[in-house]
Amino acid sequence: MNENLIIFNATIVTPVGFSARKGEEMSQLQIIENGTVEVTRGVITYVGCNRSEERDGYYDRYWHYNARGRCLLPGFVDSHTHFVFGGERAEEFSWRMKGESYMSIMQRGGGIASTVKATRALSYIRLRSQAEGFLKKMTAMGVTTVEGKSGYGLDRDTELMQLRVMRSLNSDENKKIDIVSTFLGAHALPEEYRGRSDEYIDFLIDTMLPEVRENDLAECCDVFCEQGVFSVEQSRRLLTAAKAQGFRLKMHADEIVPLGGAELAAELGALSADHLLHVSDEGICAMARTGVVATLLPLTAFALKEPYARARAFINAGCAVALATDLNPGSCFSGSIPLLFALACIQMEMTVEEAITALTLNGAAALGRADIIGSIEVGKQGDFVVLDSSDYRVLPYYIGMNCVNTTIKGGVLYPVV
Questions:
Q1: For residue 93, how many other CB atoms are within 10 A of its CB?
Q2: pLDDT confidence bin for 58, thresholds 50/70/90
Q3: pLDDT in tens, 153-200
Q4: How many helices (H) and strands (E) does the chain have?
Q5: How far apart are CA 416 and CA 226, in angstroms?
Q6: 179-197: string of b/e by CB count within 10 Å (b at 16+)?
Q7: Span 353-374, mean pLDDT?
Q8: Which CATH superfamily is domain 5-74+373-415 in?
Q9: Which single residue of 2, 73, 343, 391 could bond 410 by disulfide (Cβ 3.0 to 4.6 Å)?
Q10: Helix/strand/coil for 110
Q11: In the CATH scheme, what is the code of domain 76-365?
């Protein structure tokens, strides 16, 4: 559902451009005091200073929203989540607090395998209902576009069910958020393929990729390229096949050890490489050279008590950096945009301006959407966030507290209650 809307008396704060902003460009925001944005049938048709003239009753067909000086930003783009799943893993969280590592929990049968078991046991209706609940929470924090991954089925039927849940939610006429679906069948090795990881990759290539593509269930293909999960060569084989079938590529890369995932993402021209806690300097340079977006996930590092990704090294090397929550039931049961901003600025030493670009335009680029969302410019979707303040610098300052007053999707207002 799209609307005609005039937003006036706003402090407009936005990156500018139809592609990712790299390096120093990430700090460059356009700010318009006493600004107006016009949205016609869900698309931005004017951005500029307040204007008083009426055009023969033209604006009678528009809703009018007085921002009263508050900041108007592009809708936030959360470009890495796993929001469709069953069950919880609170017990494993307590194990980690006692010193167990994420990988050791996986090796004893917990981790992703635990969520796979719970997700396989759920019906479509229950899975959809839980996922819809997460989307409502995201909207309240200003997210207007989200990426969702499968990867908690690791079999044909459950993987397809996860993707069908996302398609159903994305096709809802009254949806408040756009969903970009990613097939992550290579999230872990299922128990039934224990010791046969190459055969599982064959299954994904020969059976799953064609069916997902035939039913138009996902735009992107992802892989957990990590020691003890899938090797660089296995990841290359899967992603090369996916690219040949028309999928865009994303990667979980260099999260636990420096395996060379960033270099592979650059080699294959992926949209993004994500996590990157232990990326090599060579990997950073390769991503900068080829334009692969570095999607950093500080909430996960926080939850795992791991060193944060080297945001400054990426930016100084001329990379485009995006930020995302990594909402998932294991390593990061959080979709908190307020905490994300605080960690990015306090722990990763990003400026507020860089963080805004990372969660808007560069997040859009990490999903191949920078041409239609991610900034407040004529021709883009009318997706916005209205803050409770006229100063955008409150975003990391409100540590863990939501400062979003209203989320606007396609010109439709959703006040935060």
A1: 15
A2: low
A3: 999 999 999 999 999 999 988 899 999 999 999 999 999 999 999 999
A4: 16, 16
A5: 39
A6: bbbbbbbbbbbbeebeeee
A7: 98
A8: Urease, subunit C, domain 1 (2.30.40.10)
A9: 2
A10: coil
A11: 3.20.20.140
